[in-house]
Amino acid sequence: MGYVKFVFFMIYPFLRQLAFSSSLPHLCPQDQALALLQFKHMFTIDPDASDYCGHILTNQTIQSYPRTLLWNKSTNCCLWDGVHCDKMSGQVIELNLTCSRLQGKFHSNSSLFQLSNLKRLDLSFNDFTGSLISPKFGEFSSLTHLDLSDSSFTGLIPSEISHLSKLHVLRINGLNELSLGPHNFELLFKNLTQLRELNLDSVNISSTIPSNFSSHLTTLRLPYT
């Protein structure tokens, strides 16, 4: 019995410290905090943005506000609005910036692409007028959720999106300013076999739409013909 007490008192400080540390917010890696701040400073806050945003097809209305406004290098980025980190590693795994009033050009060399562990990324309902969808989005190999809808992206949807084989949700739509190249639709479904939801509303699709979709697909929105 004395030996058991001795062992307990030896490991008690360690157990106490472990319990204390597990209750603390995990620290965001410095390089990821810097990447997020660089991303923030690439955009201005649109003063004319609507107070609410939402899509008639989703039947949802969300209050619009500048989520990045209080991001500050003196604070833990895991506590920043819209940022979620892995509980064990502190790595940024989710970025939700929907309806954040961001305005500016989304560059292909954006620091956002340094967040290689992202699993969910939502940039919907911002103003990236004139910006192309970078092929680098296809490098987020862990993504299960990607939403680029209603943010004024333009041009061709890159075929590299088909590299995101873990995707469950893909939303890329926006006022007939986007297009999907020949054979790209078939390529999407060939590789994105885990899709539950696909929204390509208002995307110009020039390729043939296959008759067999993903067996997991429950929601499909395509342009009106």
UniProtKB/TrEMBL annotation:
<dbReference type="InterPro" id="IPR001611">
    <property type="entry name" value="Leu-rich_rpt"/>
</dbReference>
<dbReference type="GO" id="GO:0050832">
    <property type="term" value="P:defense response to fungus"/>
</dbReference>
<comment type="similarity">
    <text>Belongs to the RLP family.</text>
</comment>
<protein>
    <recommendedName>
        <fullName>Leucine-rich repeat-containing N-terminal plant-type domain-containing protein</fullName>
    </recommendedName>
</protein>
<keyword id="KW-0677">Repeat</keyword>
<keyword id="KW-0732">Signal</keyword>
<keyword id="KW-0325">Glycoprotein</keyword>
<feature type="signal peptide">
    <location>
        <begin position="1"/>
        <end position="21"/>
    </location>
</feature>
<dbReference type="InterPro" id="IPR032675">
    <property type="entry name" value="LRR_dom_sf"/>
</dbReference>
<dbReference type="InterPro" id="IPR046956">
    <property type="entry name" value="RLP23-like"/>
</dbReference>
<dbReference type="InterPro" id="IPR013210">
    <property type="entry name" value="LRR_N_plant-typ"/>
</dbReference>
<keyword id="KW-1003">Cell membrane</keyword>
<keyword id="KW-0472">Membrane</keyword>
<keyword id="KW-0812">Transmembrane</keyword>
<dbReference type="GO" id="GO:0005886">
    <property type="term" value="C:plasma membrane"/>
</dbReference>
<feature type="domain" description="Leucine-rich repeat-containing N-terminal plant-type">
    <location>
        <begin position="30"/>
        <end position="48"/>
    </location>
</feature>
<keyword id="KW-1133">Transmembrane helix</keyword>
<keyword id="KW-0433">Leucine-rich repeat</keyword>
<dbReference type="Pfam" id="PF00560">
    <property type="entry name" value="LRR_1"/>
</dbReference>
<feature type="domain" description="Leucine-rich repeat-containing N-terminal plant-type">
    <location>
        <begin position="68"/>
        <end position="86"/>
    </location>
</feature>
<dbReference type="Pfam" id="PF08263">
    <property type="entry name" value="LRRNT_2"/>
</dbReference>
